[in-house]
UniProtKB/TrEMBL annotation:
Residues 4-85 form the CobQ/CobB/MinD/ParA nucleotide binding domain. Residues 48-68 are annotated as: Disordered. Signal peptide: none annotated. InterPro entries: CobQ/CobB/MinD/ParA_Nub-bd_dom (IPR002586), DNA_Partitioning_ATPase (IPR050678), P-loop_NTPase (IPR027417). It comes from Acidisoma silvae. This is ParA family protein. Pfam families: CbiA. It comes from the Bacteria. Transmembrane segments: none annotated. Gene3D superfamilies: P-loop containing nucleotide triphosphate hydrolases.
Amino acid sequence: MRVVMVAKQKGGVGATTLTRELGVAAAAAGKRVVFVDLDPQGTLRGWWNRRTEGQSDDPNPALAAPSPSQMEDAIRQLKAAGTDLCIIDTPPSVHPFLAGVMKLADLILLPTRPTTDDLDALPAILDLAEEAGRAFAFVVTQAPPGKSRLYDDALPILAQRGRVAPPLRIRGDFPMAAATGRAATELAPKGKAAEEVRALWHFVAADLAKIGSKRTSVRAS
């Protein structure tokens, strides 16, 4: 099982949108996915409830709700249950429990809008990710569609500190899909939002595969 954590210092950066879109894309690719919602706002849980209303048991993606102190046990249980991918959504802050959860992750995604205010808020959460010693990547969210100086100016700033994954731009399909418990890839599979989600999933999947290969090599040696 692989664990992806979505962490942010600042609210309103589209982290929950990133989480659910990534999870649905992974499930569509044949992965058994479980979300973990550690954000007290419960936005991910609300979307998942809309999604699963009236459905039979065993939804994919599924949702787990351990407390932060239960995360290590929860990860072990999900792995034993045959889960392929666990995606953790976290609250917008440098909460004391985040450092411990980061150490359970294989990959940490750091969403940020391409504004000066948002970029200025990154160092605290970035420092935690670096201290955890886990792979991480920035994801630019809510970037203007098309050619954007705002986005172009943000890229080199982020690239100085780490890798930058494919972006999720401002697209109407994201909120429209969320309103009915769906993802953009389900609402409009051929739309721009869906293309961006698939590009992000391919980036994440490739990264997780590399991590798995490195671990296999270490065990073999």
